[in-house]
Amino acid sequence: MHLNYHFLKFLCPALDKKLRDLTLMECFSQNKDEMVLGFAAEDYSLYIRANLSPSVTCLSFPEDYKRSKKNSVDLFPDIIGEKVTKVHPLAYERAMLINFESGKALLFKLHGNRSNIILYKDPTLPPSSVFRNELKEDQALLIKDLENPLDLSHEHFILLEGKAAAFLPTLGKIPRAWLKSKGYITAGIEEKWKLMQEVMDMLETPLFSITKENTQYALSLLPENNSIFSSIDPIEAANEYFRHAVVFQAFDREKKQISKTLEDQKKKTASYIKKTRTKLQDLEGSASPSQLADIIMANLHQIPLGTTEVELFDFYQNKNITVKIKKGSSPQKQAENLYRKSKNRKIELEQLHSNLSEKELLFLELEELLNELNEIQDFKSLRDFAKSNQINQKSQEQSVNLPFKRLELEGFEVLIGKSAKANDQMLRYYSWKDDLWLHAKDVSGSHVIIKFKSGQTIPKSTIERAAELAAFYSKNKNESLAPVIYTPCKYVRKVKGSPAGAVMVDKEKVIMVSPKGP
């Protein structure tokens, strides 16, 4: 409920007290989906750290924030130096507004994976700037269209036949689950009204709790028996939720990925040990090929020339046995092959015993590493652990199932889409407006993106090599020369209703290259 109107209703007045009459001193981004705004007066400062990542969108309000010297870009220069006059939520909407002395307004649209921060020079007109440019619909969003006044009267509730989603669409997952647990679905209309009033009363109470279910954290306005944090201060609750949902959850996720890598190794090692032990038992429990060779050589005089099957006395088992002779081969040659097999078998047994000892030792080491990993509770120790034990980070990335291949060209990170659907995901969630986008001209293929580095121009040689990759991962793969288009990502847009991977491109350039793989 950290993005819910019922929480913003408490958060905004608390922010208004702290931000009113403060001046916006800086506004910048150091990560693709994060914006930081710094407000200050003479002896006080407060920052808004807006994490708009599709995986977890949330706000925090630190009193100090250290800006990185690298990979940082200034944003919204039109409101730098502006003084805050008001912070308020929009009626029954997941959005809040910061108004400035000049009349400009900054909208925080908190719509999950479609969250955005939008600047209005005139709050009655369309936006002048948006943070996440890929959300094209936000470029024409009017503030008045977001406000959603509701009729919460008993008469309207009866008219809607007690449908909770229609009566109070802002309820959120946790209150809806509470209503369901109280039998709301099958209750009569008056009992439903009573339950609705009860949950609305709880939502009016300023008590904020953080809970954890499986690996997911949630902020609740309802009384919780097993909360890991509670507060009556919405800013404190928002900061704590940010710490759990972004920092702790990222730690949990990385730790889980490392654990999975070790568990997979342990599982494979255990499987190898089991198969090797079985193979050793079979080999050591069966007669050596040299025994049959001895029997053949001892009875050469009894084996007719050209025969393929003969009965001979086995002096190892003290009984007659049937021996097959390979067609076209002499008994001496067959015995020679059997002696060679016996020698190889001895070498194989020695190797299997050696491998088994190594794998048994590795299994014990992996168990110790997993026990050590379970004790780690902070990022630094976790990364030191991964580094010292050479746990491959790429295998962890693959477990997250990223929609692209990643490589490096002359110091620039390059992403290559894995499929049409992955192309869309990569463009939407992993690209920045100043990244360079490449694609084979007029044929289907992978999107290729060269990640922008602040203060650096992408060399022509890097563009040519990325173009070779774009041509290689396309229908033009087998051509001697292929045209590839390229343009900044801000000129690439997805048209609503278009097939996966299909985009519209403006201001593109064309380069001719020979398709060449990585």
Describe the structure in brief.
Helices cover 38% and strands 23% of the residues.
> What distance separates the N and C termini?
45 Å
> Order of strands across the biggest sheet?
16-17-19-18-20-23
pLDDT averaged over residues: 88
The share of residues in helices is 25-40%
| CATH class descriptor name of the largest domain | Mainly Beta
The global form is: elongated
* Poorly predicted regions: 394-399
> How many independent structural domains?
4
Radius of gyration: 34 Å
CATH topology term of the largest domain: ibrinogen binding protein from staphylococcus aureus fold
Largest sheet: 6 strands, antiparallel
Proper CATH architecture of the largest domain = Roll
Number of strands: 23
Structural class of the helices, strands and pairings?
alpha+beta
User: CATH homologous superfamily name of the largest domain?
Assistant: ibrinogen binding protein from staphylococcus aureus domain
Sheet-strand content, in percent, reads: 15-25%
Tally of helical runs: 12
Would you give an account of this structure?
Helix 7 runs antiparallel to helix 8. This protein folds into four domains: 141 residues, ibrinogen binding protein from staphylococcus aureus domain (ibrinogen binding protein from staphylococcus aureus fold), CATH 2.30.310; 79 residues, no CATH class; 104 residues; 112 residues, no CATH class. A six-stranded antiparallel beta sheet has the order 16-17-19-18-20-23. Strands 4-3-2-1-5 form a five-stranded antiparallel beta sheet. A five-stranded antiparallel beta sheet has the order 6-7-8-9-10, with helices on one face. A hairpin with a 4-residue loop joins strand 7 and strand 8. The longest helix has 52 residues. With 518 residues, the protein is of the alpha+beta class. Helix content is 38%, strand content 23%.
